[in-house]
Amino acid sequence: MRKLQLFLLVVFAVSLASCEEFFNPEQDLIIKQDDLYKNWNEYRSVEMGLYALQQKLVEQIVILGELRGDLMEVTSFADRELVDIYNFNVSTQNKYTSPNGFYELIAACNNLARKLEHDHPEVLESIAGITSYDRLYGEVLCMRAWAYFSAVKIYGRIPYIWPSLTSTQEITDYLNSPQTFYDVEDIIYNKDGHNNDTISTDTIVLHKIHLDMGMVIDTFTAQLPERIKAVGVIHNLENEDASWDITIWNQNAYRCLMGEMHLFNSNLSAAYGYFYPILFNFDSETSSIQFGLDNKFANNNWSNIYTGLEPYEHILSLEFNKSFQQQNDLQKLFSAVAPNLYMLKPTKFAVENWETIWRETDIVKNVTDPELTYMLELGIPGDFYRGYGVSYSYIWGGQPLSREEVELMLTYKRLGNYRDMENLMDGVDTVVYKYTIDKEVFDHDANYNIYRAGGIHLYVAEIYAYWLHDQYNSGLYNTNLNMGLNILNTGSYRNPPDISQLGVRGRVGFGSGDDKIYIENHIYTHDPYTNELIGYLDYSNNLPAKQAYLEDQILTERARELAFEGNRFYDLMRVAKRRGDNSYLADKVAAKFTGAKAEQIRAYLMVEENWYIPLD
What's the pTM? Predict the structure, then answer.
């Protein structure tokens, strides 16, 4: 039943695009708005229509979030529009940069929200009991806020789409108007909701307002807690399909959205307050933390995050299924197997992020004289649980290299045997593999994760890098960098420690011993290809330097954990803003270019305004 409804959702999505006609007249199916919403199933179908519109944004979000960052580049097969994005030379006609998909989703959300407010005014009454209509209303408000927030990260500013604008045509007319727009009719329902207690006007004037990121965050971090009583219709009571909970906006996804918005606004305490239930969400059925980083997705199981819907990792995912005509273009853009197009690939930096991480290392440290520190065991290079064969792959002659061949390549590199390394890798291409795992060539239906446990844990680690808080209610406010390190390395952030938790790096084998990230007065630096010691950083009595170092390590770990998922450019943007240092973003992005082009891109990105795609 679920898949059938998803197949039909496109039909109902069209109902949200116009105030009067909702179906193609050529199909002899014209339904008036008054004929909709006769029963709960119709509300559910329209609800699914919103997710169809959200699905349509996936390629755009991934492309704009990654191709402008430092983890992805174009291939020789890329079309002109992708090349323009890569070179920060976009026009308003570029199909990947249009804001229309966001406007369409916002209009649809406005439409359903107003219908719920009219027909079920109890959704506006905070003291009323919680019904399925309240839960549906929560989904709509979250999706609308997410659309604004996602758009403002891309465009830097976004027109405020007044709630009375409920069709794409109305929004188009509004956007093309001068500073004022006259709406034909507006009905404001009082909180008791009775039709005879309404204030009605024939015409209202809407002033065109653009919201920047701060305004979007302030608006929705205030609006959502005030209006939402619950989020997420509990469909599995009817269909016994638990995966429904993670494919619709739900209470935990709402917390993630709120926490993310506060984090981008550097309101660390508020962000932590919303993320806290995710890290401490105890599941009585399994006697574990539902979104904890334990052995469920450890080591070889990590790839399962991308092959199904996993209620212990996924918080909100958009599901695709080719059998029900739900597909996306991600596999087409990344795969080098014909007839896919292989337009985008990982950068050298992205690949080396996984290939220059070392396990089973052993450092003999001399605390008093760091010059006497030495490597007892260099260790073994390569993250083969999140990296090769999962997030990226090498192909030669249309076939992937084996893990053994890649390990041999890394061994040649470690030994400085570049001749044999180059012979082995001659003619080899690099591909993004994350959206191709277990897929046939024509599937094109990889799911897309909006929020998942690994990403939220890394957000909280980032908070701990700078957050001044009174951890023990002592009246003393301090940072706690060790808590951020524990989230990264071992997962021992709870009190008392939960030994089942492994941490972000720990669950893929890099969280213990000298493999872990550490912050001490002396932090040793290594040759990325041999792991030999090449020096050290002296951070004695230098808390700001330690904080920045931890933040750098977290961002690097996010690149390993979340590569190609649409986050990277905005991660760099967030940190650059926090530091007040545009070069943080500019240097990293420019590094994927060479020569004069690198200098040109760096100079361009030193101006914050150029981080955003112009709306007009």
Answer: 0.91
Cα 170–Cα 43–Cα 126 angle in degrees, nearest 5: 90
Residue 557 lies in a domain: no
CATH number of the domain that residue 93 is part of = 1.25.40
Which of 432, 463, 490 delimits the end of a domain? 432
109-151 residue pLDDT tens: 999 999 999 999 999 998 889 999 999 999 999 999 999 999 9
Nearest-angstrom CA–CA distance, 574 and 261: 11
Burial class (CB in 10 A: 0-12, 13-18, 19+), 95: exposed
Q: Are 421 and 409 in contact (CB under 8 A)?
A: yes
If phi > 0 it is left, if psi is from -120 to 50 it is alpha, else beta; for residue 320 that is beta
514 and 412 co-located in one domain? no
Q: Using alpha carbons, select from 517, 543, 522 the residue that is nearest to residue 465.
A: 543
Condensed to tens digits (0 to 9), the pLDDT of residues 517-568 reads: 999 999 999 999 999 999 999 999 999 999 999 999 999 999 999 999 999 9
Instruction: Write out the H or E segment, with its range, that includes residue 315.
Output: strand 314-318
Q: Are residues 153 and 51 in the same domain?
A: yes
Note whether 456 and 275 are within 8 A (CB). yes
The beta strands (E) that lie in 351-504 are given as: 358-359, 362-364, 374-377, 380-381, 392-396, 399-400, 429-432, 448-452
- Cα separation of 306 and 385, whole Å? 13
Q: Say if residue 229 is in the same domain as residue 258.
A: no
Residues 469 and 486 reside in one and the same domain: yes
- Tell whether 279 and 219 lie within a shared domain: no
For 167-216, the three-class secondary structure string (H helix, E strand, C coil) is CHHHHHHHHHCCCEEEECCEEEECCCCCHHHEEEECCEEEECCEEEHHHH
Which residues form the domain of 340?
Answer: 332-432
Q: How far apart are CA 305 and CA 385, in angstroms?
A: 12
Kind of pairing, strands 358-359 and 288-289? unpaired
